[in-house]
Amino acid sequence: MHDTRHDSGSGVPLLFAYLLGMPEAALPADPAAAVERLVADHGGRLYGIASRLCGKPEEAEDLVQEVFLQAFRKWAQFEGRSRPLTWLYTIAARACQRMHRKRSGEPERMASVEELLPFVEGALPSIHEHEGGPLAVQIRKEGIERVKAGILALPIEFRIPLVLKEVVGLPVADVARVLDLKPATAKTRIHRARLRIRKELEGAMVPLDLPPTAYERQVCLDLLAAKQDALDHGEDLGQTVICERCREVFASLDFASDTCARLADGEMPGDVRERLLARIRAEVA
Q1: What is the pTM of this model?
Q2: Which of 85, 154, 250, 268 would bridge with 47, disulfide CB 3.0–4.6 Å?
Q3: What's the domain range around 225?
Q4: CA gap 153, 138 in Å, rounded
Q5: Sign of CA dihedral 146, 151, 152, 158
Q6: CATH number of the domain bearing residue 189
Q7: Rounded average pLDDT over 99-122
Q8: In 10 A of CB 99, how many CB atoms?
Q9: H or E stretch including 179?
């Protein structure tokens, strides 16, 4: 637990020092200047995450401004009950929920689990086909774009948990805490969202004729659940006794998960940064 009380000498909350990962003495004494440093260190990542949640640049800017302004206004309310960056993500997630409640045109329906299950007969799309060949680069490039589009096609109640888990990298327990959900509910939403992204990814993959599943349906479902749990913990399934169909399904889940992990990287456009800093300075004017 981290003390967020004011330091009697500088007046700068210890929260800022921890957020920035720097010694407290290195921070400017002025809180507004400290927040500007916070934007400099974390603005690009928050903007990248906002882009995955919102899709449109103007909406991503609105969300990023809301995150940093609320963090600035409410830093004294932070009591060290969670990691400070988790606190920022909480602000982002709840602001995103408010923004999307006001908007129409959001995806409303989530496919059922039965529709998303990948264990079918006949050809199965393969991310590995043509591996190492000239077509592989194009397949993977299209796959990345389909993952991005698939995230935005998720209903908001599934999109936010997926982004927090797969893009931000929070543990499932933290996702649940951020969204005020039961851990089992957060886990279920993440798992269904993963399957929906994997389904979207199929359009970029090469159909591959494979033999039928080697196991009964329930065994395949159990293996899929084990794979999802392994992804939850950032672990390898370590399961070598799987059929070719399961192997291809798991490879596509890995590709989608690896792609998501790279989507938080971003850079806040200069004009967006300037508008944000202007608003922060106006708060203390």
Answers
A1: 0.81
A2: 268
A3: 113-261
A4: 22
A5: positive
A6: 1.10.10.10
A7: 66
A8: 16
A9: helix 172-179
Enter the tokens of residue 276: 């944000």
**pLDDT tier at 16 (50, 70, 90 boundaries)?**
very low
**Residues 91, 157 share a domain:** no
142-167-88 Cα angle (round to 5): 145
Residues 201 and 119 in one domain: yes
CB 106 within 8 A of CB 155: yes
The total number of structural domains that make up the chain:
2
Query: How many angstroms separate the Cα of 242 from the Cα of each of 221, 226, 237, 255, 283?
Result: 12, 12, 11, 18, 58
Distance between CA atoms of 233 and 260, rounded to whole angstroms?
15
Q: Tell me: the pLDDT tens digits for 81-106? A: 555 567 778 888 889 888 876 555 55
Domain match, 138 and 180 both: yes
* Domain identity same for 91 and 150: no
Which residues lie below 8 Å from residue 109, measured CB to CB, with a gap of 6+?
155
Q: Determine, yes or no, domain membership for 271.
A: yes
pLDDT at 26: 44
**Would 4 be classed as within a structural domain?**
no
Whether 77 and 31 share a structural domain: yes
Least-confidence region, from 51-55, 114-118, 140-144: 114-118
- Provide the pLDDT for residue 1: 35
Which residue's structure tokens are 């909480």? 90
Model confidence band, residue 123 (pLDDT cutoffs 50, 70, 90):
low
